[in-house]
Amino acid sequence: MADIIRVNAGFATIGQGAGPMMVTWKSALFDKYGLEVAMPRLMGSAKGVVRGLMSDEIQFGNLSAPAPLRANLKGEADLVFLTGGINQQFVMGRPGLSARQQLAGKNIGFVGDGGLNDALVKFIIGKLAEAGVRGLREQAIPAGGKRQLEAVLRAECDAFVVTPPESIEAHRKGCQYLIDFSEYGLNYALGGVAARRDFVANHPDIARRFIKAYVEGMHRYRTDREFTIAVQAEYSGIKDRTVAEETYDLTQPGMPRIPYPVVAALQVLLDFMAKELPEAKNADARRFVDDRFIRELETTGFIDSLSGENH
Fold first, then answer.
1. 137: helix, coil or strand?
2. In angstroms, what CA-CA distances link 65 with 46, 117, 127, 192?
3. DSSP codes, 157-197
4. Which of 77, 96, 110, 124 makes an SS bond possible with 138, Cβ 3.0 to 4.6 Å?
5. How far apart are CA 172 and CA 215, in angstroms?
6. Residue 233 and residue 264: Cα distance in Å, rounded?
């Protein structure tokens, strides 16, 4: 292996989405492929990851799609998704609501920061209206899963978009799963590892090493339940191990073996964003994806070799 190369990585928020990156780091897989990566940084939001990438504070970032797509379309950034990731999202109702039809005329929590939560709220209001469940309205709530849950439990809104592990805690407190965004092809699709296009062009070997390590880390996430749960509990600050266990068991079955960026799901998001963002009209999601490193790992047999699979 050539000389060790130092790079920095970050993730948007504490939660399931950062799991594969943290498992990769804790497994020392970046070191295995010649990269010295400090503990991935918590950037506070997807917008924070975008800023970190563009300022070169970090070279690789795990984040959801709306913020980088919006920044790209507005000419504020030029980022590409190199992998897909975990991004399992639900609409949950406050205690007493058990079916999506009951959302007619109700309020759904809306953060207002232009992130994934906002995009999914607007998306589901439209989809429910098309299905005859009309009158669902946005209601301002604080950012952060725990504060959103508190707002729902206080009946400040009737429903919210939530992701594990907060969804586990919400369910234990009487909230019900009303909608799984996988129904619309959006789970495991609206996020992943991104980098600046020019960084990838100028340093393809670094990107190749990072993605190789990440893919191996994602494999360990999928196949080593006990290790993954321990890492998830540690970096997320989960004190109740059973919450980490349920989070893993909820998210693991649908994780892709080969984590390609999901162009079709990004296109769904772009087409939806075009309703409010003129720059998104007729935008092609393929512009925002560079999957060559994942493709190499698949075609060379590296991914199959991780589990001794032959296809």
1. strand
2. 8, 11, 20, 8
3. SSEEEE-TTHHHHHHHTT-EEEEEGGGGT-TTTSEEEEEEH
4. 110
5. 33
6. 32
**Rounded mean pLDDT of 90-103?**
96
CA distance 84 to 297: 14
Residue of 179, 189, 161, 165 whose CA lies nearest to 64: 189
pLDDT tens digits along 1-45: 457 899 999 999 887 788 999 999 999 999 999 999 999 999 988
pLDDT at 189: 59
**Is 244 within 8 Å of 229 (Cβ atoms)?**
yes
For the chain, the average pLDDT equals: 91
Q: Which amino acid is at 153?
A: L
Contact 92, 162 (CB under 8 A): yes
The per-residue pLDDT for range 142-164, each reduced to its tens digit, is: 877 778 888 899 989 999 999 88
Q: Please report, as a single letter, which amino acid is at residue 49.
A: V
What are the beta bridge partners of residue 36? Answer: 6
Q: How far is residue 136's CA from residue 11's CA, in Å, rounded to a whole number? A: 32
Question: Measuring CA to CA, which residue among 18, 7, 33 is closest to residue 216?
Answer: 33
In contact, 269 and 190? CB cutoff 8 Å: yes
- Residues 227-237 as b/e (b if ≥16 CB within 10 A, e otherwise) read ebbebbbebbe
3-state secondary structure of 16: helix
pLDDT at 256: 84
How many Å is the maximal CA-CA distance in the chain? Answer: 61
